[in-house]
């Protein structure tokens, strides 16, 4: 990445600009703007997050926000209430309070003497979600949005449920947020006499969100609120949507470009859950230059040509050897001027011949360990590995060796006629690229809770032995399968630990299966291009502890129990400007017996540390989830230490009934 140090306008920074909400709650903002913005006002760009600007997102903030400011914007990075250096309390993700606060910040920014009255909003993940949700509320000053790694449907395409199946990331992310929000404000910002009171109040009111999320197992009003797919026409701001093929939120770009009525464009690269000017796998792109083209057009009225850009630009990845991490993905950029594209044709492939015996699917509960993380973000061993171990536990439909290469661009589907011996069953479908030597690379996957085959709002139990029709939609993808390889469609009734297992072992009889494959004419080369990545001066730190990620699978040959252990030590660093040192370690354990779905167990343990000179704090958060046939049982614990003294402890425990899961 090229570091840019000279900009058209000189930048000044305000590390703690207070923004007081109508109810008196003070939010803390870090703001960069041109030094002369008071004389020559500029548009504002808002990023509104719970992830701590002082030490959480500072790496990416340092690359991004001064760059915008130097190019004539006021870049406003706000800690949401109840997090970082802001006052108040947070009770849920994407709450009405959170969205109203963002609207109030937008109105505040637009009214400042250094702002010309136009505001944009951007963000990745949580920030990508809430900028779309805020856009749907239509605050008058909001003119444009850049949303990365986000969703339009909080139920069907977030970390909670997928195809009506319970994602274990539901538990994982609740554990993560318990840890993230357990940290105090910085005493240098909050004050030596206030930080501790703010911290203890925050801890006393800290929610463990998993029981709330588990209490809404259908797509009810709780999930519809904040899902912009309920009314795409509510979004009037111009939307640039960006995502990555190695991220869990890869479907949103197509949904937005297809359905938004306001100006909208989409870009999908080979990346994990990161901003694309520093993301991996490479190639990264000049995201900040691309963002400036968007901001300059919609916030300044400049003719930057963005309206003539293709609706959908996607990176078609070449086949590679399976690996848990790819530093780079070879391939090419393709461009579709309109999306959906009339150039993409759907080929139907019958997997079971008429009159053939049904394929019987009875899957080991440990199938899925090669699937990787739902949204990788550590630049570590989190991508799907060689699929052969999972293929061996699945029913596989191998296609003939390809005489010519195929470009698959879009969302494959599997239409099935299926019966189950139990009233509830899950089905997982993987599309794989099988190399001549048998290595199996995951192209895309989809899962479906078969009780949700007709509706996520009103599931219907299966009638054992009765055949039903279902449609399994796999994730969007862009992938070239070379000549000499073959396609494999692998079907299983378990996909651990991506989804929580059914309460009973299941037998599925698959009597018909049709793969619908979206094929695009082979791209002969790059059809789109981007500038090389740039960024402002990187964050200045010293390393206190190096980062390290590990992933281990242990199979106890005596008991049969399979354990996946993950440790992500994010290391510890000290900020060379303000002296704050921060570090974190995440540990996950996923346990299951291949024959017993009720043996499923998830455990997490997070450690967070903050220190400066003689001052130090540490939080330890842990959580556990298991189930029987009728209920989920969840528990969690927070411990907070000042120095080595325990100053706070709290336990959570709850039982939530299972409802067709």
Automatic annotation (TrEMBL):
InterPro entries: AB_hydrolase_fold, CocE/Ser_esterase, Galactose-bd-like_sf, Xaa-Pro-like_dom, Xaa-Pro_dipept_C, Xaa-Pro_dipeptidyl-ppase/CocE. Keywords: Hydrolase. Residues 292-540 form the Xaa-Pro dipeptidyl-peptidase C-terminal domain. The keyword Hydrolase applies. It comes from the Bacteria. One of its GO terms (molecular function) is hydrolase activity. Pfam families: Peptidase_S15 (PF02129), PepX_C (PF08530). NCBIfam families: CocE_NonD. This is CocE/NonD family hydrolase. It comes from Mesorhizobium caraganae.
